[in-house]
């Protein structure tokens, strides 16, 4: 069985931020420097989820009201602390992007990366994912309480299959349920498992869930997006900011606090540092110790 490598953070801050007062979120008054300060506070918890992984970035050089684009490959002039990764299968458009330390994260901030989306696998083991993501994306007419109930239903399915389940706000419209995996199954195995789980839930509750992205079929239902679990696909990182009004955060939460949440964008760059400072315990403290292989039991 392959050894599971949990990256450790090398804390440092040797990146000079140019134009630190540049406003990235005008409606919330969040600047480049404020985003950097938040990430420095979140780094000890965020690091294992973004270190040594291929990353896709949503870059907004002029903030959320200006042009934006996804960046999956190394670019000319990127900060020296951002690492160019060699995909063993060969990236069609050049090197992929990764970071090794806090300076790398500061380099992403300097490069106006307002969202960070990692693969579900480490670059130490490209072909075996070490987490499984179920993205719960509510259609029109779906209430927040229904999204919470859906997350609990996914948790029950995962636990029935022998996997642990953790939950975070998306910072967008829904919730993400994440299962930490021992990196044993390949991409095809992980995707097949996630697909079967989603299909079974949709078959059992067709009035609540759908597995196709067609908007016409999603009204009043929740899309169970299992496609994050294939090679090259990404999902927003725990603690990543989102390039949306209000500067929301994709925030890890405990299952016990779900009912107290007001919505998927409750936590923001503006209030997240207070949450981190006041929390007695990390709600995802057991994530890495909870890794299990995908079993043979049906979801």
From TrEMBL:
Top-level taxon in the UniProt lineage: Bacteria
InterPro entries referenced in this protein's UniProt entry, alphabetically: LigD_pol_dom, NHEJ_LigD, PaeLigD_Pol-like
Signal peptide: none
One Pfam family this sequence matches: LigD_Prim-Pol
Residue ranges annotated for the DNA ligase D polymerase domain, each copy included: 31-284
Classification via PANTHER family: BIFUNCTIONAL NON-HOMOLOGOUS END JOINING PROTEIN LIGD (PTHR42705:SF2)
NCBIfam families membership: ligD_pol
Protein name (Swiss-Prot/TrEMBL): DNA ligase D polymerase domain-containing protein
Species per Swiss-Prot/TrEMBL record: Komagataeibacter europaeus
